[in-house]
Amino acid sequence: MQPRIQLLDVIRGLCLFGILQANLLIFQYGVFGKDELELFSPHSVDWFSYYVVKIFIEGSFMPIFAFLFGYGMVIMRERSLSADQKPKRKLLRRFLLLIILGYLHGTFIWEGDILLTYGIAGLLLLMFVGRHSKTLLIWSITLLSLSTLLGYGANDMSELDISGLKEYIGLANVTYSEGTYSEINQFRNEIIPFEYLGIPDEALLLMALLMPLMIAPLFLFGMYAAKKQWFTVPSAERRMYKKGLFLIPVALLAKSLYFIFPEVHWLGMFSLLGANLLALGYIFLIAFLYEKTAHASSLFQGAASVGKLSLTNYLIQSIVCTLIFYGYGLGLYGKLGVTLGLLLGIGLFLLQMLASRYYLKKWKYGPFEYLLRTFTYWSFIKKTKSNEHTKETA
């Protein structure tokens, strides 16, 4: 069995940190309220923190997860083929469970779920898992170009019912900050925000169909990277990592343009392109720093532990943050502020690193990783205690 690639666990763990920081805007202000921050009368320091999140974080860590999903699909396929097993059945079961978990997560805990989208995208992209690396690269670039073009006018709010938007945000503020669990759950599942915005059903259907397309480019690029065996020997790839760092300033410029010229709506294209390029830049940056420090950094060790328990940690983030911000918990919805939210995210992630390292000294799999593994391989696996000297495929 191939050794587990620790660098991928590090990337996965740090990706969870970025996703947490981006999601804290939604936990605090809601899916629509986070883009109308002026309604919450933020302090000037919160405006600064807000733009830091918008430019450096938001939209650039979900694609990293997509990259890792694609990479993992190829690894699982190769491992199954070497054992004379049928890989597509395993992948099919894996993505079906992610869809189920995503549906339950989005319905009963938090509407910002990403598992459902990844599960659907994984099913749609199963046809690519056995393709040649060149084919994967061509499709990745093609879909990235297409999704970029579809971002034309994405930031144009002129066609929306602004009064309806404000009405919905006000209703959400009261419900999430003061409501009971049943009231919030009812609001999340029965109140349709798009009715307040004046968006027709046809547009909603189109948006739902296009959502997997938005993450498909990095999904496919992850498959390409796995075919090329990237990250298996970091010391031999230092030059590639260094070249990849140039993506970061280019991507940050692309993401910043809309905030510099908000009246130019077609710059939304560059926001989407910049988000994906920044995701790749961050992947190369993490790999570069990991190789530089000979992966001895306690930060990387902690991030790797979080990454090994990524599904469990992702769901824990939702549970903890809803308890902090929603009315059935501390009720801090709309009250904490962006800056303190960032600090909260750092604190929560540090706790997750400590807890994950401790847990992995006792057990080999997290509870949801165990469930996913059991469902994928269609057999119960003994939940053995962890052995840090035992390594397995990523």
UniProtKB/TrEMBL annotation:
Keyword presence, Ligase: no
Pfam families: DUF418 (PF04235)
Stored PANTHER family: INNER MEMBRANE PROTEIN (PTHR30590:SF2)
Domain DUF418, residue spans: 225-378
Sequence intervals crossing the membrane: 12-31, 51-71, 91-108, 114-129, 136-154, 203-224, 244-261, 267-290, 311-330, 336-355
Lineage: Bacteria, Bacillati, Bacillota, Bacilli, Bacillales
Name of the featured protein: DUF418 domain-containing protein
Species name: Alkalihalobacillus alcalophilus ATCC 27647 = CGMCC 1.3604
Keyword annotations of the record: Membrane, Transmembrane, Transmembrane helix
